[in-house]
Amino acid sequence: MRIEVLFPEICNLYGDLANIRYLKLCLPDAEIIQTSLQTRPTFVDEPVDLVYMGTTTENGQELALEQLRFYRDDIFRRVEEGMNFLITGNAMELFGQSIEEDGEEVCRGLGLFPGIARRSSINRFNSLFLGTFEDAHPKAGEPAEKIRVVGYKSQFGHTFGETEDALESMALFTAERGPGMSRYAKGEGIRINNFMATYVIGPLLILNPPFTRWFIRSQLGQPIDKLAFEEAAMDSYDCRVEEYADPKTGLYYWGGTTERWT
């Protein structure tokens, strides 16, 4: 069991690397490979069970892209082969078509999916998130598993498709309360084969033990009866689901104003 973490020296905001620490607690025999900006990624030449990349700064996005461009064809090949990728926060934007600010392109993305990230560096968007995940490929004879997902968002950009619903068919989650890929979209995140990317942070895997259990079993192929600290994690998760689903809960902050969820 091998998990590769890309560029942990810069992709480490909002405690995102705790996703990997939690997986290690759940899977103590897993080997964690930390790949720096100066190192050739392991997944290019050897199979790994998961490639992970977390949130970074805007400058960090450009540094990461400089390195990932060398391996663009390898990333596409591995996604086509079904290798697992989990990408959180604004790292997702690197795999779209481009990142724009004030109507001008800041940097060209890898082009794995047809999304354009539009950034406003003076208007940070902060929000709670409540959504639903549905297993796109359930086991034969079993119903698709539906899991509620909670988390946070803190970002300068939103991602748009060429048309309003262009990215909906690729969505990883469906938003119940809070925004999807853009402020009024229902689809949140991207799923292509076993490539999963989402703006949702928290960290995602700690806040969502039902999703983490599904991910370990179905994606990583590891039998697991109990997650690390499962009782505490589930108590916290159940409280968040109840709180976030309450119509009285939920303010998001956008562009200097505070607004209630719709």
Q: What can you tell me about this protein's structure?
A:
With 262 residues, the chain is α/β, with parallel strands linked by helices. Helix content is 25%, strand content 29%. It contains seven helices and 16 strands. The strands form three sheets. The chain has a six-stranded mixed β-sheet with strand order 2-1-3-4-14-13, with no helix packed on it. Strands 8, 9, 11, 12, 15 and 16 form a six-stranded antiparallel β-sheet that branches. The protein has a four-stranded mixed β-sheet with strand order 6-5-7-10, with no helix packed on it. The longest helix has 16 residues, at 230-245. The chain starts with a strand and ends with a strand.
Summarize the structure.
The protein has helices at residues 18-26, 42-45, 58-68, 72-81, 204-207, 209-219, 230-245; strands at 2-6, 31-35, 50-53, 85-88, 98-101, 104-108, 116-119, 125-134, 146-155, 157-160, 173-177, 187-188, 190-192, 195-198, 251-254, 257-260.
